[in-house]
Amino acid sequence: MTVTTLDSLAGRRGADVLVEVLRSQGVRYVFGNPGTTELPLIDALTDAPDIAYVLALQEASAVAMADGYAQAARRPGFLNLHTAGGLGHGMGNLLNAQISGTPLVVTAGQQDSRHVLTDPLLFGDLTTIAGPTVKWAREVTHANQLSILLRRAFNDCMAAPSGPVFLSLPMDVMEAMTDAPLGEISTIDHRAVAGSLDRLADRLAAFAPGRLALIAGDEVDASDASEQAVRLADILAAPVYGASWPAHIPFPTAHPLWMGNLPTKASGIAEILGQYDAVFALGGKSLITVLYTEGSAVPPGTEVFQLSADARDLGRTYATHLSTVGNVGASLDVLLPLLEARVAPRAEAYARRREAAVVAYDARRAALAAKVEAAFADPVIHPLVAASEIARAVGSDVAIVDEAPATLGHLRTFLHSTWTRQYSSIRGGVLGWGMPASVGYSLGLDRAPVVCIVGDGAAMYSPQALWTAAHEGLPVTFVVINNAEYNILKQFMKSQTHYASVRANRFIAMDLTEPRIDFLALAASMGVPSRRIERAGDIAGAVEAGIRSGRPNLVEVVVSAA
């Protein structure tokens, strides 16, 4: 029997080439919001039931959905935007993806190139627009180029440093016929082992037990190296901190050596790192700061060691005693036995440090519980209490996507899980990521339950995600933390005693009142059931019920502006 394939035909449409390449790359979802220039692709998907089109109602949401999917599935996300306007809508979340290093193949439909000289409606210089937020941007000028450029895009978005790449797809290219071969998938091993590991082992083992701290950055997650990071911490009995502004927490939060995430001010980071003789950072960009403070985040006398697949991050801001380039997981596989041999003579001292860590961890948990108990009966729910109850309800086995500034710091301290892929947050800092990212996350985890925690302000950037969650029937529980204001901004202003706003007690554009946002009505309009919680004792039950429902739902938690 002869099997007819696209490669055996005399010619095929550019859009059909694109779909065949997507299929061969294992793409399951195309995220997008279509317009006229995307219709050739939409038409080609008609005969591709194995590739689902996930409809977002706005392009920024489409980008974040693809971002969330790629992070959860650990494979490139593919999305298709609508010309210059759609690409413009998506730029904020493209910036988030760039900063998070999310591997995305971003495409946008372009006007038919045969009449661009007439400045037609919807035409724009897409590669220039996309350029600042992607690794590279290119317009496909002939259907013969499609297969090569698409495969290049899938390869390059995964190569270190990973991140989005962009292709502009003119309508005439997508409609043109071509007999160019589809090509084959390349097998590329990105797990390069770093150099100087013998020397690094000597340096790390030279510090007394407890005098070296580790930073588990986002590359630990990207290289699937959480298990190795735990072994490293155990060997050295080293306290482990998360990055100051992370996309993930790639170390088990239930491990007694886990110390939480670093603060976001240089002065706060320096206060912590100053307790140690040295710090070993796994991955780059672990010391991101938000508000300026005087002085360096790395205090004098604290030695810095780094391991990262991205050479650009090594020694970039802070002088290092030894930095080495390589995949974190593959390099730790080689480093760990070297370290074990070197620390063996002091095994008892390391064991005592590990025992002390268990006692200290339990004490920190007990102190947190006491704070929650003291605030539990407050007339309006304190954010600390809300975070505690949400963490208790979610437990250790359900994925969390977090974009709620009021509770974000609190929630991270309450996490208690051995699952190193439980938590994800908005590393880029551009609001509007969380709700659509949670949709992509559920798809990336094969439609597993996800709890999305989002602030009331952030929720209004991309509420369209509720509709997609309902349309796809995804088990996402959206928890809206509602303090009816841009709380993080107002609190900063209140800390600036020289501000006129403080003297007048008037904070322009900080309050989401008159009218208050009706999240229950908003959810209902998108086909999502919801409920409002105003008592601390009702939070856990509502979140647990939402998770058990197996369907999209929204829980609004009214909190104080503490």
From TrEMBL:
UniProt cross-references to PANTHER family, sorted A to Z: BENZOYLFORMATE DECARBOXYLASE, THIAMINE PYROPHOSPHATE ENZYMES
Taxonomic lineage of the native organism: Bacteria, Pseudomonadati, Pseudomonadota, Alphaproteobacteria, Hyphomicrobiales
Domain Thiamine pyrophosphate enzyme N-terminal TPP-binding: 13-117
Name under which the protein is recorded: Benzoylformate decarboxylase
Residues in Thiamine pyrophosphate enzyme central domain copies: 211-334
GO molecular function: acetolactate synthase activity; benzoylformate decarboxylase activity; flavin adenine dinucleotide binding; magnesium ion binding; thiamine pyrophosphate binding
Statement: the UniProt record of this protein carries the keyword Lyase: yes
Keyword terms of this UniProt record: Lyase, Thiamine pyrophosphate
Family indicated by similarity: Belongs to the TPP enzyme family.
Entry-linked InterPro entries: DHS-like_NAD/FAD-binding_dom, THDP-binding, Thiamin_PyroP_enz_cen_dom, Thiamin_PyroP_enz_TPP-bd_dom, TPP_enz, TPP_enzyme_TPP-bd
Domain Thiamine pyrophosphate enzyme TPP-binding: 425-557
Leading EC class: lyase
Keyword Lyase: yes
BP GO terms, sorted: carboxylic acid metabolic process
EC number assigned by the record: 4.1.1.7
Superkingdom as given in the UniProt entry: Bacteria
